[in-house]
Amino acid sequence: MATRRSFTQEYREQAVSLHLDSGRSITEVARSIGVHEMTVGKWVKKAREAGRVPDSDLSEPERAELERLRKENAVLRMERDFAIKVIMPAGAGTRTG
Asked: What is the pLDDT along the chain (97 residues), one digit of tens a residue?
């Protein structure tokens, strides 16, 4: 049985920096530090969402619009989920027989 490895926040930040500062792909960084590429990808994604890593390909107005659209998207998802719960009574989508 495999044991789950844990990494310090500092280690994660250094891995993200390796990807961003060196221009190396996530796959290359993951191989070099011995971590699965999906794990490194999640760290990079979290850093970007937290605003610690700027999206260098975007201009300032594009970045602002992206942030606004992400917030709007989150609100719309909540409204959609709420509407589904209100419209569909408990057990309405299940089949019997």
From this structure: 667 888 999 999 899 988 887 778 899 999 999 999 999 999 999 988 887 765 567 678 887 888 898 889 889 989 988 888 888 776 665 565 5
- Around Cβ 44, how many Cβ atoms within 10 Å? 19
What token pair was written down for 87? 């419209």
Which residue is it, tokens 């530090």? 33
Residue 27 CA, chain-centre distance (Å), reads 17
Give the containing element (helix H, strand E) for 21.
Answer: helix 9-22
Nearest to 25, CA basis, from 36, 41, 49: 41
Q: How far apart are CA 37 and CA 41, in angstroms?
A: 6
